Amino acid sequence: MMTNEEFLQVIKQSFAVYLSVGTSRSTAKLKTLHGHIAKDLQELLGNDFVIKSQGYGNDKEGNIDGRYYPKNVDITIYRNGKAVAGYAVKFVMRNYSQNSNNYFENMLGETANIRANSIPYFQIFIIFEKVPYYSNGGEFKRYDVISEHNLDKYLALSRDDPNIFYHTPDKTLVTLIKLKEKSLNYHYSNSKEYAEYYRSVINDNDLMEYSNKIKDPFNDSVILNNYEDFIKRTYHLIMGKLKN
Fold it and tell me: 3 — phi, psi (to 5°)?
């Protein structure tokens, strides 16, 4: 299973693919991330389970029948041909403030749909401390600087009891990353210049580190910057659910 440091390196690989592809809409950037997580789950769960994910096995997402509609899921766990759990992964690399409420509302809706059908569902949310904000033409406007205020909705979510509220994931991993800067608050001209700089330093050892900007205020259902703890806890939740 990946250590927290190894998970950070896989995030770095995902970022590198994003820089080379040049668009946040491509799913290519998430293949390595999904694939490594799927591999960890396979090792923990064993061969009685089948894991479907991009970047692992047949390189295809699985599908879960929710209470209201079927949903393609980033990482799906099957036993005896039946979906028994799912993981959603979101890595935000640009224009967070524009989409932040949509990200959150979509997460709540898909979680409720799946958990209301008695299937455990988990969320992984990855974001940089400072997210570039571009115009439609790619002009750099500013940074969206992530603060505790931006994560208030996740704090509120962490106080919800998943046993009572179906919209609450069984566990959520929030990963906040400090990304090396060209210089403090450097103002790029556009998305191309941003990508060129980070491609030039992608192999630097100090490119990324876990942020200590947020003093962990989360209750038990949300885990901050600890992939190892998150994976172990979700594994135990899945196995506990199957025994009941």
Answer: -80, 170
